[in-house]
Specification:
- The chain is 31% helix and 25% strand.
- The protein contains 6 helices and 17 strands.
- Strand 13 and strand 14 form a beta hairpin.
- Helix 1 packs across helix 2.
């Protein structure tokens, strides 16, 4: 066509202008390369430059060097060869040491695992320390000042009934959710934690839990509630006292008494200090998961 001077190429170019331009631009491979590979390279270079400027030079270099310079400046100011500066440092150190010995530091802790409602306590020892305990946290100390840091106490029902701690353990992953409940208050249950909780799919609605002075009262409302290995009626009121538990669906709801024992310590200078603990009794029983396999056979 071009050799013989045909007009066909001109007509094709006029009929297909976009295709002609696309072919004349070498399929626009250069433009595609520029908008993809080269654009990504330019963006990566900008990110790398900013990272080097603000992170490497800004944080890793300037901040660390500034910190070293600041600390060095502080020690340089102290190490100035002046006797009164060294004396001030020594006086500050003596004040810290004196504060440690003058102010008592009570650190009570429970020894071992509580045996039911019987608990053994101990506390940190110090110079001429004396101790007294408020086991039930009512604001009145139950012991007089004594030099020994060890003590034990058997909690009564009255001491453990002032406040309760409820623990909901899900059936799938044994995840625990802790709730502090007070008499007269309702406790919200996570239906996802209960798993398959409906005993009657038609009439079931979420179970309700309300606290009273002795523990929790569970209203099944058609949910599967078990206590002492027996399925409770769907319209019953199931009471869960301290140290007891029920199973709602696939989850277990346990109730424990909550107390805050308090320790007061004084030293030879007459300085006093107090510290409290948070204790739940009786301890939460371990939940055991078992898988039961049934083997097929004659008469089974």
């Amino acid at each position: 066509w071009y050799y013989k001077g045909s007009e066909t190429p001109a007509r094709l170019a006029a009929a297909w202008p976009r295709l002609h331009s696309f072919l004349m631009d070498k399929w626009r491979v250069d433009e595609l390369y520029d908008s993809t590979i080269l654009a990504a390279s330019r963006l990566a270079s900008v990110v790398a430059a900013n990272f080097d400027k603000y992170v490497v030079d800004g944080i890793l270099t300037n901040v660390t060097s500034g910190t070293v310079t600041l600390i060095g400046g502080l020690f340089t100011a102290l190490q100035n060869g002046l006797v009164h500066a060294y004396g001030a440092v020594m006086a500050g150190g003596l004040l810290v040491v004196a504060f440690f010995f003058v102010v008592p530091h009570p650190k009570p802790y429970v020894v071992g695992d509580p045996d039911g409602v019987s608990v053994k306590f101990e506390a940190a020892k110090g110079l001429a320390y004396e101790y007294r305990w408020d086991f039930d946290g009512d604001g009145k100390f139950d012991t007089e000042w004594q030099p020994t840091a060890a003590a034990s106490h058997d909690y009564s029902d009255a001491e453990l009934s002032r406040s309760f701690m409820a623990v909901l353990e899900s059936g799938d992953d044994d995840h625990r959710t802790t709730h502090r409940v007070v008499a007269g208050e309702a406790m919200a249950l996570s239906l996802s934690a209960l798993g398959d909780w409906k005993a009657d799919a038609k009439n079931a609605k979420p179970p309700a839990v309300v606290a009273d002075k002795e523990g929790l009262v569970v209203h099944p409302n058609g949910a599967r509630v078990r206590k002492d290995d027996s399925l409770q009626p769907p319209d019953a009121q199931v009471h869960v006292g301290r140290g007891e538990h029920v199973t709602i669906g696939d989850a277990r709801l346990s109730v424990m008494g909550l107390v805050r024992p308090r320790l007061a310590v004084r030293n030879a200078f007459g300085m006093e200090s107090a510290h409290s603990l948070r204790l739940t009794l009786p301890p939460l029983a371990e939940r055991i998961h078992a898988e039961v396999a049934v083997r097929e056979g004659a008469g089974r």
